[in-house]
Structures are given as structure tokens and as C-alpha cells.
Design a protein that fits this description.
Strand content: 35-45%
Largest sheet: 11 strands, antiparallel
Strand order of the largest sheet: 4-3-2-1-11-10-9-8-7-6-5
Oligomer: single chain
Number of strands: 11
Structural class: mainly beta
Shape: globular
Helix content: under 10%
Number of helices: 2
Order of helices and strands: HEEEEEEEEEEHE
Length: about 260
């Protein structure tokens, strides 16, 4: 007997519920971020390509970062706030991809405190009443593509904040495999902001889905001539681990000068 597909709205509700059933993530995550950018002619943009080691507290995404150079050289201690759609690098790998982008971009990672991660613990059932409504997205297409379900979305409101455009999920488990979303790329001096499309690929680790790769291309909505029609940006999230604890000073940039000698590498 063929499996009956739920309504598009119910399907989106089920996908989001399945993704958030793994929340909140572990309290700490460490990883290596590799950013690779190409110029319009396809050559590497060495100035905007780099590698960081990052130690992140997932409750507020406060993070300590150190740039990695050739050999054993490491950069100074930097306070980071990995976040999508902000003037710094996206992340962390455990980010809630259904979270709306901030209403206004922040100029300093110290000023931005993200919305707390949804908790996956469900309250006890007292009565069985199902009610849901989809206020953020309209499902415009659902298609079975091999072992995946492809869901196309249109933002009902605030398209800059409700960034999701395509979802690819496992047809059996509804686990996210890939997401296509809008984002923004900020140049180093902040004078130009480029509208981007990010294709986000997820893997599976620590019994939860997490971002492993992002590929970005400009959409040419504004200032495209500065970035170039064939320019790309890629992010790889490697060496992911979940330590049981990290020192509090990692997340207080005012104390970094006191801990240069015992800083992680």
C-alpha cells in the first residue's frame, strides 16, 4: 500500500519538529572552519580565504577563535559569534537552521545574543489536540527525488529574515540532508553587502544533524559588479568535537590578555 503524503503544511511542520527534536545541542563544540573564496575569474581570493580553530559555547554562540597559519603559527585570540546572515562567518555546525535571521545586522559580535536553542523535551500529554499554523513559509512544491523529499518554500513575510528556500530531507526519517537559504556576504570594510544563496549540507554526529559544508553564490540583487558573477565562497566545518567543559575565560574577551600563555592552539 503506498504511503500517504501529509499535506504540505503538515510536512513542513513535521520536518521542523524532527530537526528540533535533537535540540538543544551539547553545551560546547569545537571545530576548524576553513573558508575558501574565489574571484570572478575562478582564481583563489587569498585575502578572504583562511582557517580558524574555534571553541564555541552553544547557549549564546560566544566563541574563542584563533587563526591558523602555515606550519604551527597561530593568530591572536579573537572573540567570535558564529551566526548566519551577519557580518562575520556563519556557524556553528549545530546552528538552528530554522531560526530567523536577526531583524538588523550587528556590527560587533559582542552586541549580538542569539535566541536560545529550542529544547526538544516535550511536556506530558493531557489531552490529544493537534493545532498548528505556518506563519513563516508557504510550501510551493513537494517532490519525491529518490530517497529524498524535496520541499520548496516561499517566505510569507520578512523574506530577509525567513531565509529558507529549499529543503531536502530523508523520505523515511524526515532528517534534513541539505538546505538552500538566502544569506549575505559582507566585504572586509563593510561598504558592500552581497545577496547570496547558501547551499548548506548536513552530516550526522553525536546523534544529531549538523552543518558540514556551505557553498555560497551571489544572486546579483545588488552591487553584483563588485563581487563578480562567478565568485563563490565555501565553508568547511572539520575536526568537530564536543568537550564536556571549556574555561569560562574563553568567552570573556576582556580577559584574553591575561591568558596568552595558556591559550589553546
Amino acid at each position: 500500500m503506498p504511503v500517504t503524503m501529509p499535506s504540505p503544511e503538515q510536512l513542513l511542520y513535521n520536518i521542523r519538529r524532527q530537526f528540533r527534536s535533537h535540540r538543544p545541542p551539547p553545551p560546547y563544540i569545537t571545530y576548524t572552519l576553513v573558508r575558501s573564496q574565489t574571484l570572478d575569474d575562478g582564481y583563489p581570493d587569498l585575502l578572504n580565504s583562511y582557517k580558524y580553530h574555534i571553541w564555541c559555547r552553544t547557549s549564546d554562540r560566544a566563541a574563542l577563535g584563533r587563526k591558523v597559519y602555515r606550519g604551527s603559527a597561530r593568530g591572536t585570540l579573537e572573540f567570535l559569534r558564529p551566526s548566519f546572515n551577519e557580518p562575520w562567518d556563519p556557524g556553528p555546525p549545530t546552528a538552528d537552521l530554522f531560526e530567523p535571521a536577526p531583524a538588523h545586522p550587528h556590527s560587533n559580535p559582542r552586541d549580538f545574543v542569539p535566541t536560545p536553542e529550542p529544547n526538544g523535551t516535550m511536556p506530558p500529554t493531557i489531552a490529544s489536540v493537534t493545532a498548528f499554523g505556518e506563519f513563516d513559509y508557504k510550501v510551493t512544491r513537494v517532490a519525491q527525488e529518490g530517497h529524498l523529499i524535496h520541499v520548496s518554500l516561499l517566505a510569507r513575510r520578512d523574506p530577509d529574515r525567513n531565509r529558507l528556500r529549499e529543503l531536502y530531507v530523508d523520505a523515511k526519517t524526515l532528517e534534513l540532508q541539505q538546505v538552500v537559504a538566502t544569506d549575505k556576504l559582507y566585504d572586509e570594510d563593510g561598504h558592500h553587502v552581497y545577496a547570496m544563496i547558501f547551499t548548506v549540507t548536513l552530516g550526522w554526529m553525536n546523534d544529531m544533524p549538523m552543518v558540514t559544508h556551505i557553498h555560497g553564490e551571489p544572486t546579483y540583487e545588488q552591487d553584483a559588479e563588485y563581487l563578480g558573477k562567478d565568485a563563490t565562497v565555501d565553508y568547511d566545518f572539520n575536526d568537530i568535537a564536543f568537550p564536556g567543559s571549556l574555561p569560562d575565560w574563553y568567552f570573556n574577551p576582556r580577559t584574553y590578555a591575561e591568558h596568552v600563555t595558556d591559550a589553546p592552539s
